[in-house]
């Protein structure tokens, strides 16, 4: 479904990505793990079109989208759950969800998507009239994921979805991720909690200083002594 070929991204003289290449098959859950500043979030932002690639290319369903603007990538079926949630703080839960469904023109489809995300996150239905900034951190993360699901994406990019959450909300977030995976949603997950990410994913990539240095099945990566020492605290 997705193929990144030799992506290079720089910010001034700083090179954030150095020839990053990877692929994600349809209905796969693939994770990218790495330390802070390794280039994980920049990779997702490049896939979404939020940063420009100096070199390399991005193929989505066999189509070159390297120069495609972000809003058209969204219309093609790619959604992003950004790091830090970035909900619309002064809008209600209901209004945030409507913003997530902006690419859908049929009102009946928007209503159906809203019913689906409310079944996935019952607490959001209870809070539908509540302003986003008054939600707890965990509820805001649920809202960020629900907003990304509103257009019924073919592929969802998730950036540090457990960051700053209490353990109970981390467990709930990964329960939802696994459920989406079982439903056939293609997921590219960037996550500092490498243990949780590898436990949920089919395959994984390890990124260090802007370069992919290792890739394998999630089970093999979790068993690798170097990965266990560097990322799993073992």
In spatial order, strands of the major sheet run 6-7-8-3-9-10
What CATH architecture label of the largest domain applies?
Answer: 3-Layer(aba) Sandwich
Return the string of H and E elements: EEEHEEHEHHHHEHEHEEHH
Q: Structural class of the helix and strand makeup?
A: alpha/beta
Looking at the structure, the CATH topology of the largest domain is Rossmann fold
Number of helices: 10
Can you give the mean pLDDT?
94
The main pleated sheet reads as: 6 strands, mixed
List low-confidence stretches: none
* Helix share bin: 25-40%
CATH H-level superfamily of the largest domain: P-loop containing nucleotide triphosphate hydrolases
Over all CA atoms, what is the radius of gyration?
Answer: 17 Å
**How many structural domains can be distinguished in the coordinates?**
2
How many strands in all? 10
The CATH class of the largest domain, by name, is Alpha Beta
Percent of sequence in beta strands: 25-35%
Terminus-to-terminus distance? 34 Å
Characterization of the model:
- With 234 residues, the protein is of the alpha/beta class.
- It folds into 2 domains: 158 residues, Rossmann fold (3-Layer(aba) Sandwich), CATH 3.40.50.300; 67 residues, no CATH class.
- Helices cover 39% and strands 26% of the residues.
- It has 10 helices and 10 strands.
- The strands form 2 sheets. A 6-stranded mixed β-sheet has the order 6-7-8-3-9-10, sandwiched between helices. A 4-stranded antiparallel β-sheet has the order 2-1-4-5, with helices on one face.
- β1 and β2 form a beta hairpin.
- α3 packs parallel to α6.
- The chain is globular, with a radius of gyration of 17 Å.
């Amino acid at each position: 479904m997705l193929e990144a070929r030799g992506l290079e991204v720089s910010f001034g003289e700083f090179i954030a990505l150095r020839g990053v290449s990877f692929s994600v098959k349809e209905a796969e859950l693939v994770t990218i793990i790495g330390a802070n500043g390794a280039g994980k979030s920049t990779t997702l932002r490049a896939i979404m079109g939020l940063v420009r690639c100096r070199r390399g290319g991005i193929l989505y369903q066999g189509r070159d989208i390297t120069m495609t603007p972000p809003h058209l990538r969204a219309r093609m079926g790619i959604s992003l759950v950004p790091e830090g949630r970035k909900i619309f703080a002064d809008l209600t839960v209901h209004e945030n969800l409507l913003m997530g469904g902006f690419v859908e023109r049929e009102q009946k489809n928007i209503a159906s998507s809203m019913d689906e995300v409310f079944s996935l996150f019952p607490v959001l239905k209870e809070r539908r009239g509540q302003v986003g900034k008054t939600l707890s951190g965990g509820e805001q993360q649920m809202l960020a994921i629900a907003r990304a699901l509103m257009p019924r994406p073919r592929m969802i990019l998730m950036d540090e979805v457990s960051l700053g959450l209490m353990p109970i909300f981390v467990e709930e977030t990964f329960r939802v991720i696994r459920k989406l995976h079982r439903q056939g949603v293609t997921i590219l997950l960037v996550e500092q909690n490498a243990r949780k990410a590898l436990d949920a994913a089919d395959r994984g990539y390890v990124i260090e200083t802007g370069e992919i240095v290792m890739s394998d099945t999630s089970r093999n990566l979790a068993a690798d002594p170097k990965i266990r020492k560097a990322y799993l605290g073992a």
